[in-house]
Structure to design on (543 residues):
């Protein structure tokens, strides 16, 4: 690797300092990321890599920096976005065979990255229509860079891969029912699902209106805070965005006085593997060492999070896809098609009942967040599983076990609209057959509405005294 | 509650303009439909009747809905 390519392994904040000080050329850095994206194309992180456009943007950023025109910390930083979001002049596919157009306008989050001077490298692979659960992938199966025989997570799979494998400095993902936190956890990176309404959804393909969010997927918490600050805020094109002022994140050392509640239902009674439970316990020890007061918390409806979250999200998705599902069912992945058709049959009474249970879940989450400052759970119950070849839904019981349980750890919080972040906390034991030397594990940190900064505070303090976020997958072995 | 049969599911799908593409499609859609119906029916909570469904949480600024 060249010396500039060595730099691609660094955090976005480190790169930002080098770029804005003029020590690093945006053009050279962009070229280095392009080279890596092409060298590791087998991971299928990108759907569209915009070499020419990215180098032009980088040249503009370089000229501005040379003139002393500094827009902010993202200037000249090569980033990539999930192909669920429009980027002007680039193809949007939503990870499907069905959607294929060149966008006339940027999604608001993409526009804000550009306004801040970021270089848009391209569009990243994802699960079909951001649904998650599809088995076939029109743009290649996303491979986990820590073990290429395993899943990268759904649905922001390309974003997780691209950041973990240093194919971009940072990425945008989308999270309806766990699609930022899940891939971040399995790819060993940091990923923030913001408070619902904090980041505009304008220009994003919807998965489920009332839970869709857009957020940063990055190497570090400081990176996530930097990207979040750029994309968040009111947007007249999304009526549900909040006009609350954004308070810049100021890192502080230690966690003295912070109360952290461990959701016992998320780790007790086999709700996570032994490796993950041990990883969470070790992380809690680190937090105690930083001055946090760690307490037990309870969410009695926790185990139903997957059912309520998936039931509601799929019903909304089925309505979004109703016409395409009638007109082009053969162009959907078979797993997506079956899932959406089944969701099309959900009785209205069931939808209303799940909506009421959503409110009960939210009531419990908000009550817990009234007793403590932050909640924690594992972000994923296990390390990344092998790539699937079938849905595995071979009985009613299998659906209940696999599908409703799949997102139980993240569902309660997207149901509640609160912010939540996946934070890397170590690795599982190595695979005895030698396919991996350990898979990433992750802690989910949940905060009060619009209190992303406290989540960043915990995560940043943790990363100040640990090095899990500095590990990089070995791609040339 | 008894499970829906594949043919009953096919009829329901037809009523909303959808057609399964294969026997495997119909089988899995049937499993999924029966699983959701059974799981939703089994959900119980003493405070359920006191909750009104709401989809949007933060419409009123400054924490009115919190």
């Amino acid at each position: 690797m060249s010396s500039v390519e060595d730099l691609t392994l660094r955090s976005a904040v480190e790169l930002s300092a080098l770029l804005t000080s003029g020590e690093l050329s945006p053009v050279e850095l962009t070229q280095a990321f392009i080279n890596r994206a092409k060298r590791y194309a087998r991971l299928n992180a990108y759907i569209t890599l915009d070499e020419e456009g990215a180098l032009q943007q980088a040249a503009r950023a370089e000229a501005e920096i040379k003139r002393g025109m500094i827009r902010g910390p993202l200037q000249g930083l090569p980033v990539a976005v999930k192909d669920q979001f429009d980027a002007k002049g680039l193809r949007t596919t939503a990870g499907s065979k069905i959607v294929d157009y060149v966008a006339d306008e940027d999604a608001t989050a993409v526009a804000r990255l550009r306004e801040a001077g970021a270089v848009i490298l391209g569009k990243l692979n994802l699960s079909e229509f951001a649904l998650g659960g599809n088995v076939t992938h029109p743009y290649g199966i996303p491979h986990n860079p820590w073990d290429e025989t395993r899943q990268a997570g759904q649905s922001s799979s390309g974003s997780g891969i691209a950041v973990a494998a240093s194919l971009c400095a940072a990425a945008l993902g989308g999270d309806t029912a766990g699609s930022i936190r899940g891939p971040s956890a399995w790819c060993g990176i940091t990923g923030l699902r913001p408070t619902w309404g904090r980041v505009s959804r304008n220009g994003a393909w919807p998965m489920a209106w009332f839970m869709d969010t857009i957020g940063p997927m990055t190497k570090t918490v400081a990176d996530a805070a930097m990207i979040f600050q750029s994309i968040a805020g009111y947007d007249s094109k999304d009526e549900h965005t909040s006009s609350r002022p954004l308070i810049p994140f100021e890192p502080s050392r230690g966690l003295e006085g912070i109360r952290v509640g461990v959701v016992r239902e998320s780790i007790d009674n086999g709700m996570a593997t032994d490796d993950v439970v041990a990883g969470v316990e070790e992380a809690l020890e680190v937090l105690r060492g930083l001055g946090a007061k760690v307490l037990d918390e309870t969410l009695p409806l926790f185990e139903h999070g997957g059912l309520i979250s998936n039931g509601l999200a799929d019903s909304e998705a089925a309505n979004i896809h109703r016409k395409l599902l009638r007109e082009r069912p053969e162009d959907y992945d078979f797993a997506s098609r079956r899932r959406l058709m089944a969701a099309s049959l959900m009785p209205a009474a069931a939808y209303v009942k799940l909506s009421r249970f959503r409110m009960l879940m939210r009531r419990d989450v908000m009550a817990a967040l009234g007793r403590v400052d932050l909640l924690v759970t594992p972000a994923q119950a296990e390390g990344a599983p092998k790539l699937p070849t079938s849905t595995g839904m071979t009985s009613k019981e299998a659906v209940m076990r696999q599908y409703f349980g799949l997102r139980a750890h993240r569902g309660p919080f997207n149901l509640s609209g609160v912010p939540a972040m996946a934070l890397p906390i170590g690795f599982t034991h190595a695979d005895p057959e030698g396919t991996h030397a350990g898979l990433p594990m992750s802690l989910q940190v949940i905060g009060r509405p619009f209190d992303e900064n406290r989540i960043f505070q915990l995560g940043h303090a943790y990363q100040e005294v640990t090095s899990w976020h500095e590990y990089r997958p070995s791609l040339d072995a | 509650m008894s499970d829906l049969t594949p043919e009953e599911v096919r009829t329901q799908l037809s009523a909303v303009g959808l057609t399964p593409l294969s026997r495997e499609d119909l089988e899995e859609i049937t499993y999924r439909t029966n699983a959701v119906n059974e799981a939703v029916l089994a959900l119980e909570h003493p405070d359920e009747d006191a909750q009104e469904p709401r989809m949007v949480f933060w419409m009123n600024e400054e924490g009115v809905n919190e």
